[in-house]
# Entry
Amino acid sequence: MARTVCYFTAFPQARTEAHARLAALLPRQAPARDWHLANAPGTAGSEVPESLARAAAVAAGAGRGLEAAGLWQRAADVSPGSRQAALRYGRAAAEADRCGDLSWSRQLWDRVTTLTDDPAVLGDALAGIGNQLMWQPAAPTVALAERLLTAGLDDPRLVRAVLAVAARAVFTDGDPAAVRRLRTLIEQAAVRTDPIADVPDADPRGDVSDAHLALAMAVADPAGWTSRYGPLRRSPLLRPLTGPAERIRLLSIAGVAWVLDDTEIAADHYRRSLDAIRADGSAGVYATATVMMAEVLFDLGLFEEAAGLLDDAEVVAGRDLAGPVRQAILAQRASSLIRRGEAGRAGRLLAAAGDPAAPAGRLARYLLLRASAQLAASQGDPVTAYERLRKIFDGGRALHHVLSPRSVVELAGVAIDAGRRDETVSLLLTAEEAAGRRTPRRQWSWSAAIGLLRADAGEPGAEETLRDLLAEPGAQRPYEYAVVEFRLAEALSAQRRRTEARPLLISALDAFTRVGAASDAAIVREKLRATGVRAAGSGLTAFDELTPQHQLIARLAAQGLSNRAIAERFGLAPRTIGSYLYQIYPKLGIARRGQLRDVVRL
# Structure
């Protein structure tokens, strides 16, 4: 401590001189010498750029990303050749991007493009700034990738990395036209378009080129991926790598799994990628990965887990008050709150996020439109809900090619409530045709949405179609599956077939309760009472059915102890306690931690 105080209370010039003198005393290849030179700005000599570069590599390897970015920048500043300087500015941009300083990363990228037009140097730099490019329009990124490939970029690893960066931009931007350009780009690329093909001299422990190409191929053609390469769960792509490459593989394969609608693999890989991100300090990746994972958790009906993740990520993204990442997180937090019956808090979040139609980015705009529509519906205003949600298919074309189709069942429901059934059938049929090939999971949603609208109109065959769809297992889509059950039950009740509606309502209530969708569960309970069934509410009897361990965990949480404090009592990890609580809530018929006091014997 005394040494630290002496060091930082000394004048900056004295510290610089001390570093320079110590560097002069040490052997040339000593790591400590590189560190002293790095902390002696203005030191002259041809060896300084190399010393700064070595010190930057050490800092990056130790997880000190922002320090590494600064050292790479200084190494670039004093590099004698423009090509070497551009490479080092690119490394600096990558570290700044990984750590979340996107503005600095953009400035460093601009220096790279000013210094060189070498496709290999530009490709190397571009591969490291995917995080900042994910929140910008995809067209410029795809155009740059096209230019690099046309200019002769031929390193297989770099080609695949550039394709992956373009795919991530397209994935987030969601413009269907960009998806078509990505397909063309992959076709024109001078690499084998097999995501499990060997790359020359690849290190199987740390080469991510297979995962890069797999992501590009999946974003470009999700419906054709499985038929071309087989089920993802049996793919060599699931084999773990080592070091930083494993974080990249986890994120890439999570994205592949999500667009292929394999939500269990997506959730598993996103969970593990977030653990890796926390471990290596990649703060810039954390918030973006959380946005993606939250959508997977919504698909799985894990609203409480999504809420916890989003609360943490909002702290990370909160500094950029008008940024698209923060707008996306606010919208998702609002959706989670609405599902769990907290519309008041959701409204305040959406007010902070601003006009839902304003964001330039399609992903943030979609999430805000969806959340604002859900808020209006929860407040008994189906007309406003419909007008907002239909904007995700304005003109019969998807606002976001991945996300818009995930809301078609919800759109059908608010259209029925708003009395806009007929025009919505036409809208969805046009949008379905424009969407092109679909995965089986997406086709289920399209068929269910159009079937619900036709069932509401009493069209022959619509009910049979919906019952066939409900005969398929709904484990990977419990919330949406329950919505279809509830809407079909409403159509039957409108035809005075209440006896047939009851089993569907009971099943929907069970699902909504299990996933913590308190507002939906309350609506279904009222409908059940109208059919002559008194639905059981949550109570103390459910507590008695918990295991003794779960009872104690519930009691401690109800008393206000944190997950970490509870974990210390059991010798478990805080995340394990959180997982147990997610299992406990639906068994008690509640949706969140604050309700435990109402149902737990203290």
